[in-house]
Design a protein that fits this description.
The chain is mainly α. It has one domain. The chain has 2 helices and 2 strands, in the order H-H-E-E. A two-stranded antiparallel ribbon has the order 1-2.
């Protein structure tokens, strides 16, 4: 208590962020892989999917997106 105020919460919030960030990254990566890998385990690049198209950097040996700064 300080100045009559009780603060309730984690005393080390930074220790909670890393686990949450890692779990979020893992979930995002899994969801992305589900977009490009079929249930049979084959690669399926569907350019009609906005996320797949936006992340594709090269195809058939050619760069599909110019380098950005």
């Amino acid at each position: 208590m300080k100045h009559g105020v009780h603060i309730v919460g984690y005393t080390n919030l930074a220790s909670m962020v890393a686990a949450d960030a890692s779990a979020l990254y893992a979930r995002n990566l899994l969801d992305f892989l589900k977009l490009i890998i079929t249930k049979e385990g084959t690669l399926n690049i569907d350019l009609a999917d906005d996320i797949v198209a936006a992340t594709l950097q090269c195809r058939d040996g050619q760069v599909t997106r110019p380098a950005s700064a």
